[in-house]
Each structure stands twice: as structure tokens, then as C-alpha cells.
Input
Amino acid sequence: PKHNGNGGNDELGLDAFREGGEREVHESKRTRPRGEASRRAWNVASDTRGKGRGRYPRTNKAVTCMAVTRVMISGAPASGKGTQCELLSENFGLTHISAGDLLRAEVASGTANGKKAKEFMDAGKLVPNEIVVTMVKDRLSQSDAQAGWLLDGYPRSKDQADALEEADIRPEVFLLLEVPEEMLVERVVGRRLDPETGKIYHLKYAPPESDEIAARLIQRSDDTEEKVVPRLETHNSNVAAILDSYKDALVRINGNQAKDQVYADIESALKSLNVSA
Output
């Protein structure tokens, strides 16, 4: 079997086991956005990986230019979407934008949109579509997103898709990672957290390296079948609601494979759309 960077098996894209509270944010471009509030928000979003830096390190890795520069991606919890976003960002120079992470970053930085959103969040209400769409539109207008963007996990409803359409935000490709529900449940229920290092393991696919580590692993409260099944139902409902909006751009990807094969399938699909990959 293949191995991930942490020494564990990665037959099923084990980045998926970092979903939820361990979600990563990846910004592939190093150009900082303009405006002090936007720069602070960008730094907050970039630092959510827990590595305390506001920009990617310099790299000599070649970036592939592709004809398609507007990509949306959707996938259920534990589908491996995080890793595919990272690979697409790094290999194709797309700026990765997660609406949820963007919202939290703007709230934390106290931008005008963030202050508006915080009022609804503090009141326990959903943030209105127009506020989130404004955040997304502003983010997409910044210099580092001009060469291409990857919008992650948004929109999640027909209303949100319509709002993006009204703002003239439409993807050229809509990637949908598909994984059988029983596999998603297995991925989530089997993952464990090392409270000392923050590393995520999986009892079956990425077991701990020693008995000492195994003894201290904990299961997060939301990594149970009782919690994940409703989340999957919500995801499926959301996807069903927006697929009609993006049927002309839809590309279905089998996510029940090793992460390298999933990425290879995405590359192949992009090539079939006359994308230089």
C-alpha cells in the first residue's frame, strides 16, 4: 500500500481523516492581497494550518498552466477533498478559497463584512447569502486570484448558487468527489486524535506507530456514526439542490481510491476538457 507523509497507509486518501476541526487552508499564491484588513484576514486564513505563517514558502516546483481557471469542488466529510484542493492549488497555481475559512478569517480580522457576519453569528442565525457572496466576490477580485481560483465547498444551496450567478461567479468545472456512504462513515468513525501532537490517525488505515501513542489517542466527539450520518445527509441534500445549476460543468470523480489515483482521474478529466495538464 501507499504511505502518507506521516508514515501511515494512504490507500483511501487519509487527508480525509483531517476533516472537521482539523481542516486545512491552502493558499497557493504568494502575492498578498491589497488593503490592511484584507491582508490581516489573509494571514489569519493562511495560519489556520497551525504553522504560523502568512504565505507559502518559496518553492522551485513547476506550476502547470491550464486553460480552465475557475473551478469549484464539492465532497462529503472525509471524502479527501482537502488533499485534492491542495494538489490542485500547488500543481495548477489556483488560489484555494474556502468560504467557511474566509468567513472565519474576516470575522477574526474585523473587516466590514466580518463585523456584519458576526452580528448574525452571535445571534445564532445563519449569515445571509449576500454577505458571504460579497466576501467571496471580494476575495476573487484580489490580485492572487486573477490567474485562477478553486472555490471549496460553496455554494451549498440553490439560493447560494443563484446568488453567485447574479454576481457573475460561475465555474468552468464543477468537481464532485463521490465516495460510498459506508466508506465515509468508516473513515470518520475510525479516526483518532493524538492530543499531544495533534496528529490524526486511523485505527485501520493509519494506525499509530507505537503502543504508547495508541494508549493516549482519543476520539473526537463528532467522529461518531451518530454525528456523521446526519452530516452526510445534509451534504447529499445540499449537492442535490445545486447540481442542476452546474450540470453543464459537472465532472464526477470516484473518491473511493488512493489519493494519487483520485488526482490522476481529475487530471484526466481536465485533459478531456482541453486542459493542459
Remarks:
- Strands lie at 70-75, 95-98, 149-152, 173-178, 191-193, 200-202, 250-254.
- The longest strand covers residues 70-75.
